[in-house]
Amino acid sequence: MGLVSLTLWGCGRINPDKYVTLGSYDTLTVQVDRYTFTEEDLQQFVEYELSSYIEVLGLYEYDTISANTVENDSIVNIDYVITQDGETVEGSQITGEHLVMGEANSNGFEELVGKSVGETVVIEFTGTEEEALYFGIMDPEEHEILILVTINALESRKAPALDDELIASIGMEGITTMEQFKESYREYLQDSCDSQNQTAREAAIWNAVYDICDVGEPPQELVDRFYEKKKQDFMDFVSILGDQGMDTAEAEASYLDENILEQAKEEAKAELVCLAIAKKEGIKITDKQLKEAAEAEYESYGYESAQAMIDDMGEEEYRSQVLRKAVLEHLGNIVTITDGTVSPAIVIPGADESGETDLQ
Asked: DSSP 3-state assignment of 154?
């Protein structure tokens, strides 16, 4: 059973002891996975992030090579201009463009393959209406639109040195040196570790404790509460997709009422276990504690004030969240914690087996 959102509801009318037999969690040993990072991990991540900046911002260093014929993987230096019915389209002249054949930015320029340096190649414009509109071209299907491409040279490229000059060229606010850049990602990885470790700890503790509890069929009123909430969440999700102009048919077809009902039952059971533990351990959330918790986190949820957050979420809903955290924290002081798998905080995409990233 995964760690779920717990909502105190009807706790004055529902006695959790009628539905839950708690296990002996005070003698429980819980294995918790741990996330960390090394200096090598940090260096790999910094190099990976810099490679992304270099690619997106076009910060490669280019050199002309002696090759003369464009191949499928060539880097081509080109000038081009777009014409509409024989007239140059204003603002369409591009000079010194570095085009990497075979990559996304070369789509539509496949006709350059096999052509030679110095040639001008006429390519029929096949872009979308949106791409045509970027150049101010209306109704492209009604006009002869051509791209005149001059092949200036073939090139090689390499990533620039990973130094302060590169960092300054990226233009990150408040970060102008490699040391500052690296330190910002050290903080990022540490925050990621802290977050993942907290989540792993809470999930492991909750799952272990829940698994040794015996939970009967939850009261229908509690199941209905979770069912309506989950159904509304799904409808809100579909509505957001629709507002974004996306086709919602597939999402709507994925809705299965029996699945939502089963999930609601599981959450109701988890709710009862949380309430039973809180009752046994004497854990209660006073109004003062509720307000202090809200004051500490309302900004992270995007609210203007603690009270605005409580009002929007509902006092009992928010009280439940605070109680859940208190229950998990209390359980963490009772059960015995041992280390599980130790994993890196971030898996670096593009790193080979030696841990090196490709910046060529």
From this structure: strand
